[in-house]
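Q: I'm writing up a methods section and want to include an example of the input and output format. Could you take the sequence below and give the corresponding predicted structure tokens, formatted cleanly so I can copy it straight into the document?
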Amino acid sequence: MKFLFEDLENLRNFKSNNDVNRSGINRFAISPLLTAVASYSWINNVSGILEYYSADVNIDEPYIIPSCVNHSPDDWTGYDPKVKSLFLYLNEKYLNDLRNKKAYLFLDQSLEGYQTHWLWDWFHKELSIWEIPADRIIYATGNMIADKTYDEFCKVNNINEKMCIIPYAHFELDMAMTAYQRNQGEDKLPTFENHINYKSNHDIKTFACLNKRIRPHRVWFYNYLYNSGLIDKGLVSMNQFDYHEYHFENKTIDIDIIHEISKNLPLVVHGKANDEFDDNFYIRRFNDKITLDTYMTVISEAHCGDSDQTMFLSEKTFKVIAVNHPFIIMGNKDSMAMMRSIGYKTYDEFIDMSYDSLPTHERLQSIIESIRKIDNIKDKLEWYKSMEDVIKYNYDTLIGKLFRVPDAMVKFIKHVEKRLI
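A: Here is the clean output for your methods example:
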């Protein structure tokens, strides 16, 4: 497959755009999926999957125009009048070839799972304005249910010519590669056997729940956790949050309660603050010691509310698998079901997973009860040992994905090849 770049040296398109998002990063960047395929090629010593060319080269067959789109659709689409439509920054060659079905525009939002109610409608209106066939757009996103919501949109609006929507958990491969590389050196991640040896000789907390950036669902879960009396049973980090009412999924925490639950903040684990370095440091840091000192992790994901219309599985989930730790995902509805669908096993025989399909606030409260049930287990070391097969299976599944072409790229290739027949 041939990919064209206006800036071949840096693998960048949308060269004429210099917009910077609210977070300080460029609106357009290098596609994470292409980076993942390059990693696959490197680790497996294969070549020829991707071919890169300068945009001024004439290509006889249909080619791909790739770009990462950073942050949320508000920032990269052009729907918000503070920025112009991304289609405005496509050069004339790209526009003509898209219109004549000689090219595909690949937009990669897999670093995030943001979704908005207007996104699909915006795409189709813009495609109509710019006279670009919908099947020329390939959109990868960290929203693992985006393909389903898009199909529903098309059904309701009687749309037959569709874009190709690819849900892609990029951080799965990113963390797998990071873990693989670390385990090639001397400072290896803890194995299942390391956990058993360590846990047999130390006092171990029931659970870990790490929270860095303040988000409404994390404040709400901390509120439930505070009132459960379970905080001391775990290693819980929580930064100081602002004193105002936190509205989330049709509920609000009163300011008096905010003052009460935040009186002991910040909570710091092992004396290490989690806001001293940039985000990249924490994204790639494995919390080895914390997982050794606990029996399971409650993963505080980036999204949680049902109204978010997304399901995002970030590095937080896959880092826990890499260190051989059982887990609960405090994230979007049916996140554990999604983990099963992408090849992992969940801990249904050992942990009450009934929370997974419940509405938002019921889900958070049910997770509290799942933690309580684990805390009441008398011999937690034997309980941990009993999960050996699942823990090791998940680790092997994670690392094993480095040795095959990413599923998202397989879907990508099938979409393009189908139109070449």
